[in-house]
């Protein structure tokens, strides 16, 4: 048993008008009473005069009922049912019941379609008859108006019947004159003869018209034949300019193909140019951002150097009276500034500052120079990395840093 079969069975039974509501849960377990009711209802629906016993209380009654229904469907509807599945009264019985319900459902649908077609035909006939009777309706209205007018004239004539009766009796009582009757008959004969002559003349004219029309038709046929022959000759003869036309057409095709290729290349180059410009713009923006970041970093470093230089100057002023140790530190500071000046490439306007103060011995100078050289090597290693990021535009600002002018021993 499939869900689709069970759903189709329930929908078909509902469409056929089964009075009881069949659920999909009714056939999960054997339900012989429901199957027997459905079979009996289907048999009655197929043939209302069928007499099948509805007793299903005992086993023999159920077997007899299933056999009777299967025999009826095989003989009347030519539908072969599996009696074992019907006797199971579960989902497998739905497949057997679906055979009968599908036949009845199909018959109901075809009958509904035929009724719809009949209704459409009736409506179309009614519309057609109504349209054909419009002219009759107009004729009836015209006859009604004529009847009223004729009735009014008849009423007036009947009012004059008294006077006309006397004149009619007098004309009837008067004897008939043969000469006058003869004249009237001759006049009527002459009128008839004139009408006959006119009719003959018209017939002769029709014959003449037919002859003239036949002559015209023959002329048209001859012209048509000549035109067809001319058309055939024109089609068979190749024009003089056809070769040139074909050559020009080939050239035009080549030019068009080259035009397409050039246009395609042009669009491709334009796309490449746009991409190149876009990348250049992005690189320019990136370089501008890097330059801005570098300038900001250099400003911060300059401020830090200025602060450190101010602190070093204050320390030098405090330690002037302490002796040779303070002088050694001053020499180290000066060496640092000299190293900073040498590390900045392209630096213009650098200043070398010194003092005229002396008094130091050679040993002190050698010892101080050795210490300064060691510090100088370490500071040069530290400042090499920073010197690569310093721009020449900032060198003039760093050249103006305040330096100790009084404690320098380097005289150049």
Q: Largest sheet at a glance?
A: none
H and E order: HHHHHHHHHHH
- Beta percentage is under 5%
Q: Any low-confidence stretches, pLDDT <50, length ≥5?
A: 124-128, 339-374, 383-412
Gap between N and C termini: 114 Å
Helix/strand class = mainly alpha
Q: Count of helices? A: 11
General shape: flat
Give average pLDDT, whole number.
75
Work out the helicity level.
over 70%
Give an overview in words.
The two termini are 114 Å apart. This protein is 78% helix and 0% strand. The radius of gyration is 65 Å and the shape is flat. The longest helix has 77 residues, at 242-318. By secondary structure, the chain is mostly helical. It has eleven helices and no strands.
Considering the chains and any ligands shown, give keywords for the structure.
0% strand, single chain, 412 residues, mainly alpha
Please specify the SSE layout and strand pairing.
Layout: H1 3-16, H2 32-46, H3 59-77, H4 83-88, H5 91-159, H6 161-173, H7 178-236, H8 242-318, H9 324-343, H10 362-387, H11 395-399
């Amino acid at each position: 048993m499939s869900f689709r079969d069970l759903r189709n069975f329930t929908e078909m039974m509902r469409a056929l008008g089964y009075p009881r509501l069949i659920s999909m849960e009714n056939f999960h377990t054997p339900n012989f009473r429901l199957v027997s009711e459905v079979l009996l209802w289907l048999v009655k629906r197929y043939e209302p005069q069928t007499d099948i016993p509805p007793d299903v209380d005992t086993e023999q009654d159920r077997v007899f009922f299933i056999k009777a229904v299967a025999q009826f469907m095989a003989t009347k509807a030519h539908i072969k049912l599996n009696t074992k599945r019907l006797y199971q009264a579960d989902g497998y019985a739905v497949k057997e019941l679906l055979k009968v319900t599908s036949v009845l459902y199909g018959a109901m649908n075809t009958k509904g379609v035929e009724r719809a077609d009949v209704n459409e035909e009736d409506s179309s006939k009614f519309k057609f008859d109504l349209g054909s009777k419009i002219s009759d309706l107009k004729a009836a209205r015209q006859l009604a108006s004529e009847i009223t007018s004729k009735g009014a004239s008849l009423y007036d004539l009947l009012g004059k019947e008294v006077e006309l009766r006397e004149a009619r009796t007098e004309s009837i009582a008067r004897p008939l004159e043969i000469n006058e009757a003869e004249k009237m008959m001759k006049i009527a004969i002459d009128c008839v003869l004139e009408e006959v002559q006119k009719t003959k003349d018209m017939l002769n004219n029709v014959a003449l018209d037919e002859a003239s029309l036949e002559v015209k038709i023959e002329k048209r046929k001859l012209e048509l034949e000549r035109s067809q022959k001319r058309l055939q000759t024109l089609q068979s003869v190749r024009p003089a300019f056809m070769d040139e036309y074909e050559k020009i057409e080939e050239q035009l095709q080549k030019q068009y193909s080259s035009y397409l290729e050039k246009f395609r290349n042009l669009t491709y180059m334009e796309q490449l140019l746009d991409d190149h410009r876009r990348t250049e713009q992005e690189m320019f923006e990136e370089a501008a951002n890097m330059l801005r970041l570098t300038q900001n970093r250099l400003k911060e470093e300059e401020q830090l150097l200025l602060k450190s230089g101010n602190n070093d100057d204050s320390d030098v002023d405090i330690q002037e009276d302490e002796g040779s140790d303070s002088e050694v530190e001053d020499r180290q500071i000066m060496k640092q500034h000299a190293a900073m000046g040498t590390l900045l490439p392209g630096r213009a306007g650098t200043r070398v500052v010194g003092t005229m103060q002396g008094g130091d011995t050679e040993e002190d100078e050698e010892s101080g120079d050795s210490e300064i050289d060691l510090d100088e090597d370490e500071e040069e290693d530290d400042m090499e990395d920073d010197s690569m990021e310093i721009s020449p535009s900032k060198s003039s600002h760093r050249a103006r840093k305040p330096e100790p002018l009084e404690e320098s021993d380097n005289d150049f």
